[in-house]
Input
Amino acid sequence: MHPVLCVADADHHCPVDWVRRWKPKHASERFLLRLAVTEAESWLLADAEGLAAFLKIPKVRVASRPDELRDPKREVLHLASQSREQLIRQEVVSAFDRSKAGTGYNAHLCNFVRQHWDPLRAMSCSPSLARAVRSLQSLVG
Output
């Protein structure tokens, strides 16, 4: 059986309680459920160097402790609104409500993850990501 990785947002809930509730009772030992603290965007923010380069903003604007942010998604939107790339500003952030994701939010962030995000760099700034990677490494041996 192939390993299965499921990643979700903790959304300010206790990760231990969420895992107990969400993990299927008879899940295979090859099933791994990991929760990003607070949202998966904190893991993206944890690679400040990569995100700054992708958004074309100064690295100092990216939070150094993203797991402690109350709303990492809002922080990503705020940073994207400051991008020197017009396309990112227009598509990642909603034109109607700057606190909401635009129509290109997922497409651009998926591109960032595929092309620029470095999980090894990100692990040093995100304890929750570091735990997830260690669990994944133990899963695949």
In short: The two ends are 14 Å apart (CA to CA). The CA atoms of residues 81 and 89 lie 5 Å apart.
